């Protein structure tokens, strides 16, 4: 791999991926809305190419990516957001905001660059282990990541005949500006550096599903495979404890 495209590049996992790939000599197309941070990344690494656009704005994404001259080997769709439903009081605008970023942001970006897709490329979509187990307050976030997971797995089947691979990343808790806002315990949290290492290793190994940290995501996957009534009872007991 010689080049990589990364959305959500101005903070958290996306920024760590940009720095790590650039430090390893890859050409990095760093995408985000914060021009100042993009400029800082460019100043730090000559091989980082800033690309400013908003994934939630289809016109912005199309304009930014329609005239791409160089085509990256890997497209990492990492931009995301999280808001919680409080005490079961549904807020349609909140849900819409989360879905607009986490789901439509992925769709808008892929639509904008799909004419560049060619044999041997890989699309990597960052989801969440939360998509595999229903958790309180996560109605919007978890559902959006479940939608992303399904979308990616279906897209994988449709793009396979063209020689384009699709991978989904299922992280546990990662210390980022998003998780810094959480007021609850986040077991087995990892750093953005650890997240970047896990993602890059998974991509290098050609994995379709990238889970980390292994122990935490394995526990949630096991619970998520149980009947729904068991999941509910077990989750309720664990949260109470």
Strand content: 5-15%
Instruction: Supply Rg.
Output: 18 Å
How much helix, percentage-wise, in residues?
Answer: 40-55%
Weakly predicted, low-confidence segments: none
Give the rounded overall mean pLDDT: 93
| SSE order | EHEHEHEHEHEHEHH
Strand order of the largest sheet: 3-2-1-4-5-6-7
What is the overall shape? globular
Cα separation of the termini: 46 Å
Oligomeric state, counting identical vs distinct chains: single chain
Number of helices: 8
Major sheet attributes: 7 strands, parallel
Q: Give me the count of strands.
A: 7
Q: In terms of structural class, how would the helical and strand content be classed?
A: alpha/beta
Descriptive account of the structure:
The protein is built from 8 helices and 7 strands. It is α/β, with parallel strands linked by helices and 241 residues long. The protein has a 7-stranded parallel β-sheet with strand order 3-2-1-4-5-6-7, with helices on both faces. Helix 6 (192-204) links the parallel strand 6 and strand 7 (209-212). The N and C termini lie far apart (46 Å).
Summarize the structure.
This protein has 241 residues and is an alpha/beta fold.
Describe the secondary structure blueprint for this structure.
Blueprint: E1 3-6, H1 12-23, E2 27-32, H2 35-44, E3 48-52, H3 58-65, E4 74-77, H4 92-113, E5 122-126, H5 139-159, E6 165-171, H6 192-204, E7 209-212, H7 214-224, H8 228-240
Parallel strand pairs: 1-2, 1-4, 2-3, 4-5, 5-6, 6-7
Helix pairs in contact: 1-6, 3-4, 4-5
């Amino acid at each position: 791999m010689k080049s990589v495209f990364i959305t959500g590049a101005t903070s958290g996992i996306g920024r760590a991926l940009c720095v790590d790939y650039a430090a390893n000599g890859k050409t990095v197309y760093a995408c985000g809305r914060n021009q100042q941070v993009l400029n800082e990344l460019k100043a730090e690494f000559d091989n980082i190419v800033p690309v400013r656009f908003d994934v939630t704005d289809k016109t912005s994404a199309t304009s930014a990516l329609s005239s791409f001259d160089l085509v990256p080997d890997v497209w990492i769709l990492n931009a995301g957001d999280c808001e919680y439903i409080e005490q079961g009081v549904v807020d349609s605008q909140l849900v819409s905001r989360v879905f607009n970023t986490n789901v439509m942001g992925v769709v808008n970006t892929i639509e904008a660059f799909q004419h560049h897709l060619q044999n041997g490329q890989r699309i990597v979509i960052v989801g969440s282990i939360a998509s595999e187990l229903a958790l309180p307050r996560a109605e919007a976030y978890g559902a959006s990541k479940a939608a992303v997971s399904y979308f990616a797995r279906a897209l994988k089947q449709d793009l396979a005949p063209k020689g384009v691979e699709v991978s989904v990343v299922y992280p546990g808790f990662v210390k980022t500006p998003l998780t810094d806002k959480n007021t609850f315990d986040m077991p087995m949290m990892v750093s953005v550096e650890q997240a970047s290492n896990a993602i890059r290793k998974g991509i290098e190994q050609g994995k379709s599903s990238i889970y980390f940290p292994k122990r935490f995501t394995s526990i949630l996957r096991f619970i998520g495979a149980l009947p729904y009534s068991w999941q509910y009872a077990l989750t309720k007991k664990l949260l109470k404890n």
